[in-house]
Amino acid sequence: xxxxALFRPSQLRWLFGLTTCLVxxxxxxxxxxxxxxxxxxxxxxxxxxxxxxxATVREPWRGDIRDVNGNPLATSHPVKRLCADPSLIxxxxxxxxRALAPILGRSETELADRLKITTRVDTxxxxxxxxxxxxxxxxxxxQWSQVTQxxxxxxxxxxxxxxxxxxxxxxNTLRQRAIFGLDSQRRSYPNGQLASHVIGVVGITNxxxxxxxxxxxxxxxxxxxxxxxxxxxxxxxxxxEKDRSNREIVRFRGQxxxxxxxxxxxxxxxxxxxxxxxxxxxEAAAKFRPENAMGIVVRPxxxxxxxxxxxxxxxxxxxxxxxxxxxxxxxxTDFYEPGSTFKVVSLSAALSERVARLSDTFDCxxxxxxxxxxxxxxxEHYGNLPLEIVFAKSSNIGIAKMALxxxxxxxxxxxxxxxxxxxxxxxxxxxxxxRLREPxxxxxxxxxxxxxxxxxxxTPLQMVMxxxxxxxxxxxxxxxxxxxLVDNExxxxxxxxxxxxxxxxxxxxxxQVVQAMKTVVSTxxxxxxxxxxxxxxxxxxGTAWKWNSTTxxxxxxxxxxFIGFFPADDPELCISIVVxxxxxxxxxxxxAAPVFRKVAEQASHYLKIAPDRGSLSLPAEDSRPPAPAMxxxxxxxxxxxxxxxxxxx
Length: 649
Fold this sequence. Notes:
Helices cover 34% and strands 24% of the residues. The protein is an alpha+beta fold and 649 residues long. Strands 2, 3, 6, 7, 13, 21 and 22 form a 7-stranded mixed β-sheet that branches. Strand 25 (553-566) and strand 26 form a beta hairpin.
């Protein structure tokens, strides 16, 4: 009775209905909260972070490339990456375009179009307005100063004082933050084309990181490529939160890692010697008009490359003015038939095997000798000559007869021991192995042709390192162009020490080969034009016919070369000069030997190398070096990758 007095039936129904609605509402709210906080937790968390969190990637400073004395060969300069935030410009893009067009040298219409607001869907599925537009990648600091001054002058056409606070805030934000500059860098090469094949060049890569476009330098040639990781450093990143006005909330700053600058690469290259070498190669190229002229200066005891150059070169500051062919370092990417310079290896092998002595006499058949169905020729009609004179006068017949005293297997082993058929390991990209076939693939005449520098493919670097092994008492060294890595404080992080590869011959045998090589640069030899006034030179001339893969025969085109070292009995430098297809002059003693002499004279003066002899009167004319032998031809094969080697028979 009491309950009936308190609630009438209609009230009970109303109360029940209200309670039911509340329960259902709470259940719906709980379900919605479950969906939002449990099922869609990660999705909404990512969405919230995308709207408030900002990640800024900081580009590290790229290290320098320097010569052995610290002179900059490649360096970076600070520039500004000029950017705009269209969301802060809104519909005032024409005002901004008018202010910036004269500074950037672009039309107002083009700039205004870039500054328009657009939308995109990011990787999280969030629709965003464009808050980042590149206007110029490499604006100078002076241009950046002009931009900030021009933006400060952007004004509302009327009286700004009567504008609402919100509009005033918009104009202040437009002037101060709509255009911004990111710290960046531009790579430059202060010496132009000097040592460009060693230094290399950088390219630019673009990619996204944390939904931000990154523009970064990376090496594509030379040391810039092979030491790209060390030069690049480690990028930094700042992760922070921003308010709805796009301002950073400093107290919510999270990850804040400073970029780590790249290391500086110090080369073994000496800028002065590089200038000397390139100048002499350029003079030779002007005189003989070859396809290319190549030169290398090496310290035999350490394998350090002090200079390396091609006459066909390029300026890394202006790649548009060169072709891919000019940028290829043919000293390591191409192999060729070395001709008579390879006789240094053959003589070393014969003396090591004790199958011949320098005093042994060989019949040179008066310039023509048939063996294995093919005729081998000399440039002169020599008769019986001691081996030392055979080598000095570069008799193909005499050297071939000497080689026949060895077995194919033993001779092949010595050739491999000098580094042929494998990469030298120099710290430059694109090096090829050359070509050295196994003895089982040799022909009947191969043991008479390979010893005189045919049927074998060698790079100019392989040849100069083989001759350097003779200069280094028989020890083959690994060539290198990088001396150390240093940080910006000048502290050495990594030091690269000379690396011994193997003993190619004993010191006693090397001494005998040096004696024979000294005879080459004498009145009895083919390399008289390489002789120096105050130094004894040991060297070898080379003249090899070039194989034409189209006609499948040798053309009347040549590789003319000379490789030598001095002082002969205590060598400081080994220098190689290779002239590819000279149009005037043919033989190595005429074309390459004088270039060697000019480079050696200047290098000895610069390095203050102690003389080992007095003055020397040079003859007026050089005897002609040996003509290439008529040998059987074998088609060339591709070296590796996309690098096209010189055609070698």
